[in-house]
Design a protein that fits this description.
By secondary structure, the chain is an alpha+beta fold. It has one domain (4-248): Glutaredoxin (3-Layer(aba) Sandwich). Helix content is 42%, strand content 14%. The strands form two sheets. It has a six-stranded mixed beta sheet, with helices on both faces. A three-stranded antiparallel beta sheet has the order 2-1-7, with no helix packed on it. Helix 1 (83-101) packs across helix 3 (131-143) and helix 5 (155-165) runs antiparallel to helix 6 (172-180).
Length: 252
């Protein structure tokens, strides 16, 4: 797959575009980070735990997986509706988690960047089961990306979802999730429909997701996935570039 990235216009949640199709892409060049470092020894996890099971929210709207004090910090600005984010996860997340994060040398902070309206209910649903299930649910979204997004090709589904966005603000996320099949998708993965609707009806959390996305845009993040390794933009969407950069930074 070519290295394309999604662009997001800087729009507040209240005026997110109603078009639910995938946004246009801009081509970017793959590039290795200039970061270099000596090999870092594996870091032992707390007794009875593994680093890949340690998850926490961050002040910047993200969710951190792994050692909070890891010397190699990977931040991903990712959209749950972005196919290139999905491919990155499909290609590399299991290895990132099991080899690099589990070693204690690398942490991953995923910041959900709402570039399309459907990113908001997807993010709310991924968070609905708490931190313990967050990354497994995100991984499921990406692993089943094509099937989950297939309804977007149906004009009737798009029309229904767009109509929901024009209706009662308190029911917009519930209606969109129902129209696009998200409620059923997450129900099959442990988030019961009633629980999902409670999470989706939380207007404050929905606004928070959109608000952080607005901040990401204003800070200069213009595409997904954007990957920062110890603060340096890797300028890539490909795991084949990310993994050597981690090793170059010391995860070897």
């Amino acid at each position: 797959m070519s290295a394309f990235r999604f662009r997001r216009t800087a729009l507040a949640f209240a005026v997110l575009p109603l078009a639910l199709g995938l946004a246009a892409c801009d081509k970017k060049s793959d590039g290795q980070s200039a970061l270099t470092g000596e090999p870092i020894a594996k870091i032992a996890a707390p007794a009875g735990k593994t680093w890949s099971d340690i998850v926490a929210e961050t002040p910047d709207g993200g969710v951190l997986l792994g050692n909070p004090a890891a010397p190699i910090k990977l931040i991903e600005y990712g959209s749950l509706s972005c196919p290139h984010c999905a491919k990155l996860a499909q290609d590399g997340f299991a290895k990132l988690r099991d080899d690099y994060i589990a070693s204690g040398r690398v942490s991953l902070e995923f910041r959900s960047f709402a570039i399309h309206p459907q990113d908001v209910p997807l993010t709310l649903l991924a968070r609905c089961g708490g931190m313990e299930t967050y990354f497994p649910l995100v991984e499921q979204v990406y692993a089943n990306f094509d099937a989950l997004n297939a309804p977007l090709a149906d004009p009737a589904v798009q029309q229904k979802a767009n109509a929901v966005m024009q209706g009662n603000p308190e029911q917009r996320m519930v209606g969109m999730a129902d129209a696009l099949g998200y409620t059923q998708f997450f129900a099959a993965r442990g988030i019961a429909a009633d629980q999902a609707r409670t999470c989706l009806s939380d207007g404050a959390k929905a606004a928070q997701v959109a608000g952080f996305s607005q901040k990401y845009s204003e800070s200069g993040i213009t595409g997904t996935p954007t990957l920062l390794l110890n603060g340096t933009n890797l300028d890539t969407t490909e795991w084949s570039v990310v993994e050597p950069a981690l090793q170059k930074a010391g995860a070897r």
